[in-house]
């Protein structure tokens, strides 16, 4: 009898493992939030994404998939018509009424509450990995980030400067904002730099008086934003910019927009890059 029970338990265990694996293999995923899309791909399930939101531009082939739209424009009907089995979305990115409709339809939802810190990046990677049955991959990805940050920290011990940096976000010359706390500006804490604007919270319009008062030594911005304003020469036309130390010395640092702003799987790589760019004494001669 005991032998028979052991055999039955083994059969049930095998069936459970097979069923679970089959379930994950059949997953049809929709993501809402570029950092989450990138994380699903970094964990190895990019091929299961059937649609994403308008901000999800990396990896590049995601742009060829159907788009569910952007924030307030996202509707439940369009999502349900794509027959997803799993939706991974940033908290407050999709309206509550839409989420309620999706839940009522029986679609599994994973809602990720994001913050701009390394600890939170590792937390949401683990959360998504668990939802995908990719725990081992999640631990490996987190270990890679830890290693990259450790390497950057070791480099910073050799640094002789602590530059004052202004992070900005712009789309052309019409909209130029300072990126303060709880934005990608938080990354300065990990790269041996000080924010030129101190306690500014979120994104605030950039004005000439505040810019001159902050007098940054470096400006960090998105590559796409710098291109949209006409490169460094275009940025220096922003009132007050040419009079700052950063402007006079043309110390404008631009990085791929999603990599810089996402605090996602590539955050360790971004930190390594910024450490070198903001500390010229660390660059190979």
UniProtKB/TrEMBL annotation:
Give the Gene3D superfamilies listed for this entry.
Nitrogenase molybdenum iron protein domain
Record bears the keyword Transmembrane helix: no
Q: What is this protein called?
A: ABC transporter substrate-binding protein
Record-linked InterPro entries? ABC_Transporter_SBP, ABC_transptr_periplasmic_BD
Name of a matching Pfam family: Peripla_BP_2
Q: What's in the keyword line of the UniProt record? A: Signal
Q: What are the Fe/B12 periplasmic-binding domain coordinates in residue numbering?
A: 28-282
| N-terminal signal peptide | 1-25
């Amino acid at each position: 009898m005991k032998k028979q029970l052991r055999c039955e338990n083994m059969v049930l265990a095998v069936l459970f493992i097979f069923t679970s694996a089959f379930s994950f293999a059949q997953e049809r995923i929709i993501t809402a939030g570029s950092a989450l899309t990138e994380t699903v791909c970094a964990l190895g399930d990019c091929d299961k994404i059937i649609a994403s939101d308008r901000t999800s531009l990396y990896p590049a082939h995601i742009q060829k998939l159907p788009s569910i739209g952007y924030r307030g424009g996202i509707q439940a009907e369009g999502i349900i018509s794509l027959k997803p089995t799993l939706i991974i979305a940033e908290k407050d990115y999709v309206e509550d009424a839409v989420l309620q409709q999706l839940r009522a339809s029986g679609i599994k939802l994973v809602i990720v509450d994001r913050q701009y810190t390394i600890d939170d990046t590792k937390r949401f990677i683990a959360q998504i990995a668990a939802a995908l049955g990719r725990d081992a991959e999640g631990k490996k990805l987190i270990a890679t980030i830890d290693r990259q940050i450790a390497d950057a920290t070791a480099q910073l011990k050799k640094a002789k400067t602590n530059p004052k940096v202004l992070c900005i976000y712009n789309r052309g010359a019409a909209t130029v904002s300072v990126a303060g706390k709880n934005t990608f500006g938080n990354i300065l804490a990990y790269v041996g730099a000080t924010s030129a604007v101190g306690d500014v919270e979120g994104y605030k319009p950039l004005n000439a008086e505040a810019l001159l008062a902050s007098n940054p030594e470096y400006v960090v911005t998105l590559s796409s934003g710098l291109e949209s304003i006409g490169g460094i020469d275009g940025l220096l036309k922003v009132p007050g910019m040419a009079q700052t130390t950063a402007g006079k010395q043309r110390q404008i640092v631009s990085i791929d927009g999603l990599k810089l702003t996402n605090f996602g799987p590539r955050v360790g790589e971004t930190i390594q890059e910024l450490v070198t760019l903001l500390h010229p004494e660390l660059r190979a001669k």
